[in-house]
């Protein structure tokens, strides 16, 4: 027989290695870093998903913590949670939302598709902090912090809420400032007439200010789309719990918690009218990101046009002088490139890729739950933050410093499409023949008109560039403005 002490053997088996402590969950014991605020379930996820090294976005963690805060206060109001315990949970959740404990959320983005691991991580951290506030009295991560909740409704709610807040706080203000800057340039450039272009070929004259009015209008529409995307995300699945039925949740919980989230964020958060749809799909995120895609491609159009008009300075259009931000070549002295535009267009490429990720995330919508929530949240939030930052940078480092050159007005008199203004006077076919002759001979439309016998005074009236930038039929109709 062995003389070994069974109790001593058990204690040795359960002893933690240096720098760790033993925690327990429903699957048994797990060694956890000694200073970690999380528990066994979080550590299991850390070990299970050593994929990218990318953690869940800070904005997502903030939104999830706000859900826990609203839940604690709601549960206290419904008499489901002891007031002192609820207050401790709420205080802990607020600190987490403020980013004081980000290092205690180590789980990779590429984890369980419902992000149950991150919800559990949040519950464990808040439980630990709340228990410490109560002098060690046990606050249970599931029974208390997660009361009336499931990962299946809290995580998609945090996904949508974080996106809506990011749009409100970052993207919309950046777009408003950009729209104002473009509108200011429209006014500044209103008196400058240049050659319009369609199919990248010369067309009738246009005011440079009219072009920029178009850009300002495009960003105005982008603001509307951003607001629509925000509102799409504010109808949240909170309260559906496991499969949309609301099991283990008080019937009034969701509506009250949404009111709490509205107060916390300043946005109108509403409970989804159909929980079975809301948490089984990514429809809201897909629709919202579709708006972001439209915004991104709109910014691409504006930036690309400005890049075209700034092409030069001598062998291109050179109608705009872009601000010089940095040397453009390691071999060609004096070369300056449109790097701010290039930065923005790379952001657009990333947003389009993220749009494909969010859309493909719908393939994780099986029966009662979507299981591509973490990567969808990451893609959505990255698009919002990148668009906001690039729109802000585009305004500050490029738009506000744009200057018009003399090149645009100089090219107008040489434009063959001035023949369009003669069409009501001499007919389309004759005007077309004049344009072709001008191209072959290098003569201007004015010179050819004089040779045809049109009086100089009449040509001055018909070929008034300013008159051509407004509605009208020949004879300078529309005024000279």
User: How would you name the oligomeric state of the polypeptide chains in this document?
Assistant: single chain
Helix residue percentage? 55-70%
Number of helices: 18
Say how many strands there are: 10
Task: Work out the radius of gyration.
Answer: 32 Å
Can you tell me about this structure?
With about 475 residues, the chain is mainly alpha-helical. The protein has three domains: about 35-145, Fumarase/aspartase (N-terminal domain) (Fumarase C, Chain B, domain 1), CATH 1.10.275.10; about 155-230 and about 275-405, Up-down Bundle (Fumarase C, Chain A, domain 2), CATH 1.20.200.10; about 415-470, Ribonucleotide Reductase Protein R1, domain 1. Helices cover about 55% and strands about 10% of the residues. It has helices at about 5-15, 40-50, 60-75, 85-95, 115-135, 140-145, 150-190, 210-235, 255-265, 275-280, 285-310, 340-360, 375-395, 405-410, 425, 430-440, 445-450, 455-460; strands at about 20-25, 30-35, 195-200, 200-205, 235, 270, 320, 365, 370, 405. The strands form five sheets. The chain has a two-stranded antiparallel ribbon. It has a two-stranded antiparallel sheet with strand order 3-4. β3 (about 195-200) and β4 form a beta hairpin. α4 (about 85-95) packs across α5, α8 packs antiparallel against α11 and α11 packs parallel to α13 (about 375-395). The chain is elongated.
């Amino acid at each position: 027989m062995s003389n070994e002490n069974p109790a001593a053997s058990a204690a040795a088996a359960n002893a933690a290695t240096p720098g760790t402590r033993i925690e327990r969950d429903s699957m048994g014991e797990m060694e956890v870093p000694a200073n970690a605020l999380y528990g066994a379930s979080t550590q299991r996820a850390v070990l299970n998903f050593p994929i990218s090294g990318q953690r869940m976005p800070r904005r997502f963690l903030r939104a999830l913590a706000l859900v826990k805060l609203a839940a604690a206060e709601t549960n206290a109001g419904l008499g489901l949670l002891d007031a002192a315990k609820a207050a401790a949970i709420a205080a802990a959740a607020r600190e987490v939302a403020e980013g004081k404990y980000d290092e205690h959320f180590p789980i990779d983005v590429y984890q369980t598709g419902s992000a149950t691991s991150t919800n559990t991580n949040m519950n464990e951290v808040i439980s630990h902090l709340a228990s410490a506030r109560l002098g060690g009295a046990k606050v249970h991560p599931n029974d208390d912090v997660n009361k009336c909740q499931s990962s299946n409704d809290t995580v998609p709610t945090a996904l949508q809420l974080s996106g809506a807040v990011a749009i409100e706080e970052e993207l919309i203000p950046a777009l408003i400032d950009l729209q104002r800057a473009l509108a200011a340039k429209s006014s500044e450039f209103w008196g400058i007439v240049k050659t319009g272009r369609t199919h990248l070929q010369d067309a009738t004259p246009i005011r440079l200010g009219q072009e920029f009015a178009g850009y300002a209008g495009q960003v105005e529409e982008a603001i509307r789309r951003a607001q629509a995307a925000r509102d799409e995300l504010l109808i949240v699945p909170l309260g559906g719990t496991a499969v949309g039925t609301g099991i283990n949740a008080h019937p009034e919980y969701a509506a009250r918690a949404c009111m709490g989230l509205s107060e916390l964020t300043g946005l109108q958060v509403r409970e989804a009218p159909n929980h079975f749809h809301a948490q089984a799909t990514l429809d809201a995120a897909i629709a919202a990101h579709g708006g972001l895609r439209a915004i991104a491609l709109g910014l691409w159009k504006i930036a690309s046009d400005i890049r075209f008009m700034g092409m030069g300075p001598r062998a291109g259009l050179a109608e705009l002088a872009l601000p010089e931000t940095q040397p453009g070549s390691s071999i060609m002295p004096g070369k300056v490139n449109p790097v701010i535009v290039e930065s923005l267009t790379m952001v657009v490429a990333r947003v389009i890729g993220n749009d494909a990720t969010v859309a493909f995330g719908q393939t994780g919508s099986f029966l009662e739950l979507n299981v591509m929530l973490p990567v969808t949240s990451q893609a959505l939030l990255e698009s919002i933050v990148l668009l906001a930052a690039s729109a802000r940078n585009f305004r500050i480092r490029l738009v506000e410093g744009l200057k018009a050159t003399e090149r645009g007005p100089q090219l107008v008199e040489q434009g063959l499409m001035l023949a369009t203004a003669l069409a009501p006077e001499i007919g389309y076919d004759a005007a077309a023949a004049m344009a072709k002759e001008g191209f072959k001979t290098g003569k201007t439309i004015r010179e050819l008109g004089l040779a045809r016998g049109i009086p100089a005074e009449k040509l001055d009236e018909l070929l008034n560039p300013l008159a051509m930038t407004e509605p009208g039929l020949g004879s300078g109709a529309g005024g000279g403005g």
